[in-house]
Write a structure and sequence with these properties.
CATH class: Alpha Beta
Strand content: 5-15%
Largest sheet: 8 strands, parallel
Oligomer: single chain
Order of helices and strands: EEHEHEHEHEHEHHE
Radius of gyration: 17 Å
Helix content: 40-55%
CATH superfamily: NAD(P)-binding Rossmann-like Domain
Number of strands: 8
Shape: globular
Strand order of the largest sheet: 1-8-7-6-5-2-3-4
């Protein structure tokens, strides 16, 4: 069951000395979430494949006077455990802590009939959207569990998760991601780490324009509004929840 969550006001510097890892940091939601976390005083570790866009976001965060972020270029198509271990080792070496992961990286793949789903594209969608998130969670858990309160947040999709025709690999990946989050929350019940899902709903994001071409944007939520709601999900002490953005 979805739990509506509204955009709330958060206190400046409430995340001072906290460290968050954001995947897909240069994407629509990832970028806004990185800025929102930094505004609250968090040190944000920016990961994505495009180093030019990462550098631009890094510069923007610095120019706004927020805590100095970090950049770790990382390709989520990587399948070797060792690469994920090296990622978390570099975070430990630099910061000695990690308070949360926001899995905002996403690959759309093909939206169409099953017959149009190329095998390699199907596998890429599952790897980027589900497998990498699971591997990253596994690698980061030992460090996350040292935090007084840490969170792992996954991003689903209000349309794709209903298992309707033509959503293909993307739809399957979002359903699988929600299931994985629930399993993880159950496993971590006695720990200080929570695992939750955030569902943006109708919004102005690049991926929405691809799945809903020609949609009127007047009543859609902006990426900054979504990021504010996502912050509340990231900071929630509840676990095993499926939060959805609520339009005020």
């Amino acid at each position: 069951m979805n739990k509506p969550i509204s955009s709330l006001k958060h206190a400046n510097n409430q995340l001072q000395d906290h460290v968050y890892l954001v995947t897909g940091a240069t994407g629509g939601l990832g970028r806004e979430t990185s800025l929102a976390l930094a505004k609250l005083g968090a040190t944000v570790i920016l990961t994505a494949r495009n180093e030019h866009k990462l550098d631009a976001l890094y510069d923007e965060i610095e120019q706004l006077g927020y805590p100095k972020p970090a950049i770790i270029p990382f390709d989520l198509e990587q399948k070797e455990d060792e690469n994920y271990k090296q990622l978390i080792q570099s975070i430990y070496n630099e910061f000695k802590r990690l308070d949360g992961i926001v899995n905002s990286a996403c690959h759309l793949g093909v939206i169409g009939p099953i017959g149009s789903q190329d095998g390699s594209e199907w596998q890429k969608t599952q790897q980027v959207n589900v497998n990498s998130a699971a591997m990253l969670s596994k690698a980061c858990l030992p460090l996350l569990q040292q935090s007084k309160h840490a969170s792992i947040t996954f991003i689903s999709d209000s349309s794709a998760r209903h298992s309707k025709a033509y959503w293909g690999a993307y739809g399957v990946s979002k359903v699988a991601l929600e299931s994985f989050s629930s399993i993880l929350a159950d496993e971590l019940e006695a720990s200080t780490v929570v695992s939750n899902v955030f569902i943006p709903g109708p919004c102005i994001l690049p991926i929405r324009k691809k799945t809903h071409p020609g949609e009127e944007e007047t009543n859609l939520s902006t990426s900054s509004e979504l990021a504010n709601s996502l912050l509340s999900a990231i900071l929630s002490k509840e676990s095993g929840q499926c939060f959805s953005h609520q339009v005020d």
